[in-house]
Design goal:
Elements (H helix, E strand, L loop, with lengths): L1 E10 L3 H12 L5 E5 L4 E8 L2 E8 L5 H8 L3 E9 L2 H10 L10 E3 L3 E6 L9 E6 L5
Parallel strand pairs: 1-4, 5-8
Antiparallel strand pairs: 1-5, 2-3, 3-4, 6-7, 7-8
Length: 137
């Protein structure tokens, strides 16, 4: 079951400039910075009420974010939803005909297990499922 909008992921070219911009825009500093080596990405998180904004910058030419920004302008990269049981949601979505980009959940930023739903099966939107590691069964 989807429990809430977890975060919006925004792809940016210059993480420091974007961090300064969003610090001013949101009126608060980020609560976390993290490097995710498996995805070749640096992230910055802002808390906004019950949801978050994640700024993402690729750290290598092979990064999905670097490739995304080579084709598209900075902006929304994905929409992430918190789920109670990521494996159950993956099974439910596969059975419903959605294409998942991950066979198994993987470790993502901000202490989450994650899985992505292909944009072609979600009306052009990259959807991320997130489960807090503490709640993993």
């Amino acid at each position: 079951m989807f429990t809430n909008l977890e975060h919006l992921g925004l792809a940016v070219n210059d993480l420091e400039a974007a961090t300064a911009l969003y610090t001013t825009l949101l009126g608060q500093p980020p609560y976390k910075r993290e490097h995710v080596a498996s995805e070749a990405v640096d992230t910055v998180f802002f808390q906004v009420g019950g949801s978050k904004i994640e700024l993402l910058a690729g750290t290598s030419p092979d990064s999905a974010i670097t490739k995304f920004l080579a084709k598209k302008p900075e902006g929304i990269h994905h929409v992430a939803f918190e789920v109670a049981d990521i494996r159950a949601e993956m099974e439910r979505l596969r059975a419903a005909g959605f294409t998942l980009l991950n066979e198994e959940p993987k470790r993502g930023a901000d202490n989450k297990l994650v899985c992505f739903v292909h944009p072609k099966s979600a009306a052009g939107v990259l959807v991320e499922l997130c489960q807090s590691v503490e709640s993993e069964v």
